[in-house]
Write a structure and sequence with these properties.
Blueprint (H helix, E strand, L loop, with lengths): L5 E6 L8 H10 L3 E6 L9 H8 L3 E2 L5 H6 L2 H6 L3 E7 L1 H9 L5 H8 L4 E5 L3 H5 L1 H12 L3 E2 L3 E4 L5 E5 L3 H15 L9 E6 L4 E2 L5 E2 L6 H12 L3 E6 L11 E4 L3 H11 L4 E4 L6 E3 L17 E3 L3 H6 L8 E8 L3 H12 L3 E6 L11 E2 L1 E5 L2 E4 L3 E2 H19 L1
Helix pairs in contact: 1-2, 1-9, 5-8, 10-14
Bound molecules: cytidine-5'-monophosphate.
Cytidine-5'-monophosphate (C5P) binds next to α12 and β17.
Amino acid sequence: MLENRRILLIVAGGIAAVKVPDLIRRLRERGAHVRCILTNGGAQFVTPLTLAALSGDKCYQDLFDLKDESEMGHIRLSREADIILVAPATADIMAKMVAGMADDLATTALLATDKPVMIAPSMNVMMWTHPATQSNLQILKTREVKVVGPSAGDLACGEVGNGRMAEVPEIIAALTRFFQKNDGRGPLTGYKALVTSGPTLEPIDPVRYIANRSSGKQGHAVATALAELGASVTLVSGPTHEADPDGVAVIHVETARQMMKACSEALPAAIVVCAAAVADWSVEGAGQKLKKGDKTPALKFTENPDILATLSQPGPGRPGLVVGFAAETENLIENAKLKRAKKNCDWVVANDVSTGSGAFGGDSNTVHLVTADGVESWPTLRKRAVAERLAERIAAYVQRHL
Ligand code: C5P
C-alpha cells in the first residue's frame, strides 16, 4: 500500500525525532519515497546528513536557501508529495499550523500545500493536555488533519502520561489506512456498518432524566476505525462530548427508543457494532414536571427495546456480523458468554467497568473478545487501538465469510 507513495516528512524539534531514522527505513522498505524537511528544533535531535542518507534524497532545511529555491521551490516541495507527515509534531508546530504561520520552511510548506496532512504529536503530558494544545488539536481535526497518537507512557522529561509519539508501526499502519481509504481500496470498501455509541437519556419528566456514565469514546472510535478501513458507516449516538468522526454519517438521538428507530432505519448493514450503553428502562408517564410535595414520587419503569438482540434476530435481513459489548463488574467472561448466547449476536467485546478499571470515560480499555471460537484476551490498549484491532478483526471476518 505504501509502494511508490511520496511522503514529505517534516521533522520538528522533539526528542521523538530520534525515532525518525527507523521510521524512514521502514517506509522505504515498503517502497515509499521519503523526502525530509528538518526544522531548526529537529536538527537539535537528528542530523540532516542522517535523514538525507536514509531517505536517499536531499534534506531540506532553509526557506531562504537560494540553491534549493531555484532548483525546487518551497511550493513545489509541498505539492510534490502524496501526503505530508509531521513527526514528531510539537506543540509549537501544531500552534503554528493553526495560526497559519509560515516563518520557516516546514510551516511554509504546511501552509502552501494542497495535500493531506498527518501529524504524530509528541510532547510533555502537561503541554499535551494544556487547553491551548487541545483546542489546536480540535481545530486541526476540523481541517481534516489526520492525527496518529500520542500514547501514554514514560516521557523523556521524566514524567509519565500522554504525550509519547506513536510508535513507528502505528504510524505506518495509519499511513496505510489513509492510502487504502483514499484509493477506495480498504478491506471494508463496499460494506455498510452501523455502530451505536454513548449513553441514552431517559426522561423522568420534561426537565429531568436518567443517564449513565458512557462517554461514547469506544463506540466513536469503532465508527472511525471501520470508516478508515473503507466501510460506509452510520453512527447512531446518544449525547456525548465526542466530536462527530470524519467521514461517518452521524445520527444523534437521546432515548433508547429513538436509538432503536434510527438503527432500524439505517438497515440493511453488513456489520453492526452495538457499543452504546442503552438504558434498560424508560420512565412511564414522563409528561409533566414532578412537583416537590409531601409524597416522594415513585417512578414506574417500562422495559426498553434491546437493540442488540433485535438486530441479531435471525431472518433474511440479519446483518452478517453483529458485535455487542458487555460492560461487567464481575464474572466478566462468563457473563459475556451468556450475553452472546442470550442476545444471539456473533461476538461480544467484554470489558471490565468495575470501579478503578478506568473504562468509563477513560482513554484505555482492557477487553476480551468472545466469539464462537473462544475467548481472546487483549492487553490494555487505548480505546482507539481497541477499535482498530476490532475493525481489523471485523475486516478479516468479512473477507472470509461475507
Ligand atoms: O444487557 P446489556 O446492557 O449488558 O448488554 C450490553 C450490550 O447490549 C451492548 O452491546 C449494548 O449496546 C446492547 N444493548 C442494546 N440495547 C439495550 C441494552 C443493551 O443494544 N436496550
